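## Example record

The block below lists the input lines for one assembly entry, exactly as stored, with component labels intact.
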Amino acid sequence: MKPSAFCLTSDPAVRAFFGSALTGFRLEFYPSAGAFLKTSPKSGLAVIDSALPDMSGRDLVSVLRGEKRTAGLLLVLTGPGQYSPAAAALCFENGADEYFPFPPDARLFRARLVNLLERSGARPRRAGRPEEYRFGALKISPEARTAHVGTRRLKLTALEFDLLLYFLKNQGRVVSRTVLLEQVWRQGEEAGPRAVDKRIEALRAGLGRTFGAKIRTVFGLGYIFKL
Amino acid sequence: MPRPKVLVIDDEPDYLRIAARIAAKVGCAVLTAPTAIEGVELAQKVLPSLILLDVGLPDISGFEAARRLRRLPALAAVPIIFFTVRSELDMVSEGLKLGAAGYVLKPFDPDELLRRIKAAVFPA
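Predicted structure tokens for the full assembly:
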């Protein structure tokens, strides 16, 4: 039986690439996230162009991964532009099974997708957050609730650790103080915008100079975490 | 030439400010409303080129607001971009079924929102 793939793209050049690199596959094309979601996909291989007209590929992957009924989908993202380790890491952290800067080498692209399809039958699907985040010397284990820079274990309060996780999951996005209060704060903690600023300062200090500086203040708006 | 108008409807002042700043950066005039009802009324007056619409609004949902906008002939075709924390598959599907030009999850990447506003207001 022919392998098959759902290809999500509105870009004729990307479509042509999928068509030529995946010769022998049965391909179904969808020009948008909306068109794909209308089919109520549950399993199969979906190759997603990051620059869809209605949704970013990264957001779509995160939505599909967050849902039990779409856990059987294999998700492959292709992104425009230069390869950046941070961009690739973000895609995997959002739940992508593969990531390729566009245009990938056609032979490599095909071989990795074939392997992914072959392996997927035997591989249990994971869901939720990764077991560990690593950025150079910084290592964060959500399950163990530990963070290290090199071998040094960081002393973070529970709230500071939750803040760090929230920033990691939302890298490159501006997060306002209000959102942090809604999404991260626990009952009983001192609340309010000033309390957020104080905790961010404490988190920066806890992370040390190199990684603390990655949490940048966006004047009048909030914070952005960029590695 | 008058600047295209972008209407931002969101009850969260921080997001109103962020979205307004990004739309202004693209060269748009920005109007804001903190509730869906006020937003729909304002849209009828100013006939914006684009509406950025939160989903979890205090009076009626952003989806219901979009349905009301779509029933108004002058606004039936105005592009709507939902921007929301609601990342459940059913919510995303419903938003896109309503014919949204975009569905952006909060917190968002400012560059991503900028690209989407640009594409909606100045289509190639």
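The radius of gyration of chain A is 20 Å. Chain A touches chain B at residues 32-34, 37-38, 53-56, 59, 62-64, 66-67, 69-70, 170, 172-179, 183, 220-222, 224 (CB under 8 Å).
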